[in-house]
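Fold it.
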Amino acid sequence: MGITRRDFLFSSAAAAMLPKAALGLEKPLNVVLVFCDDLGYGDIAVYGGANPTPNVTKFAAEGMRFTNLDSADPVCSPSRASLLTGRYPTRVGVPRVLFPKDTGGLNLDEVTLADMLKAKGYKTCAIGKWHLGIPEKYLPTSRGFDEYLGVPYSVDMEPRVLMDGTRVIEQETDVDYLTQKYTKRSIDFIERAKDGPFFLYLAHSMVHIPLGASPAFKGKSGLGLYGDALAEIDWSFGEIMKTLDRNGLRENTLVIFTSDNGPWFQGSPGRLRGRKTDTYEGGVREPFLARLPGKIPAASVCTGLASLMDVTPTVAKLTGAHPGEKPFDGIDIWPLLSGEKKSIDRDVLLFFDNVNLQAARWNRWKLHLTRYDQESYSVIRGHRQTNYALRNPELYDMDRDVDESYDVAPLHPDIVAKISARVTELLATFPTDVQQAWAETNNRVNTETRIGARPRPASN
């Protein structure tokens, strides 16, 4: 089960001592979270990618690389909502991609990681893609961040404004220069907040289409515009690491590098099946690297199961920050990050598409329960129409079959039954629209193999 507020507060006295005592730091812990957009699991070099990404490679040698970390949802807004709250996006009011015309956003009674850290005395800054609501009450400066610079949604949405706080400073910003602008502001924030503690959330707009790269990178990677944009992200990451070093912040700054979901039309999911919008691993498994010198083992690899929802509870625990009243769905993964444990026992993890539950993961097993039919599929979230329950749910052994190619449900009916039963119990705790969608889906059982067998999108 998720961590309750009572469980969390029970250990808050000890947690409050972690930044200096248990972690052995001379200064309070800073946090830098770099979050890419549509970066594939197989895109960067340390995950087998064709782009050398030397700065990320150097970073991986100084910290830990996760090989089994998933998002709860395969698209932008829901993934971000779960990252910053530690809760399922279907619980917090963001089950689908938000558009500029939407009047809602991340539920106002949800407590973000920035809220928690700001209450602890942290200086907080969000830079880049927000995508959790456009009205002022939903913008970063109303959700725990002291300042914000960025495009408040995906760069393929219009108008593509650049905002500083709540003020639009560019009516149609140029995607070629966004990474440069984000990097400059990130460095500026670190320089101003260096006496700490601080929390920097840098959510790149790249490598979401339309792709862009500045003149210094455009045409230089040999891997097209996607490769150019990725090379510039790697450069940006290197500049931020240099800034931390220059200011003596390396030893007391937890740095995380990850992404929201799988690659869309371009990019690589590696060996994984599926892409963005899929609840196969290619759509939800993320590159995830973390560094805290002396505390996170250098050049280490973690194969234990983890989730983007674990970031907020972990950082809250490390900093002694208090959560809100609502329980986390994520867990504290510091035992994995510290190398103390290779894996952590945890509850079944759920994978949603909009309000529709599609798959569940328990330890090494992943069970696909529902799927969209080919005819109703659309890459525009919210326009998918028909989700079917699979009469014969598909079970995959993720230890042996990472690309989800071999259905072993007939060999393990006990596992199928166990996961299915827990899914039913968990869904009873979700909002009414999620429970209703589950009931409607289970009234549409389909055995045809074409369900979900849509072709891979063409590159553009």
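Residues 93 and 106 are 6 Å apart (CA to CA).
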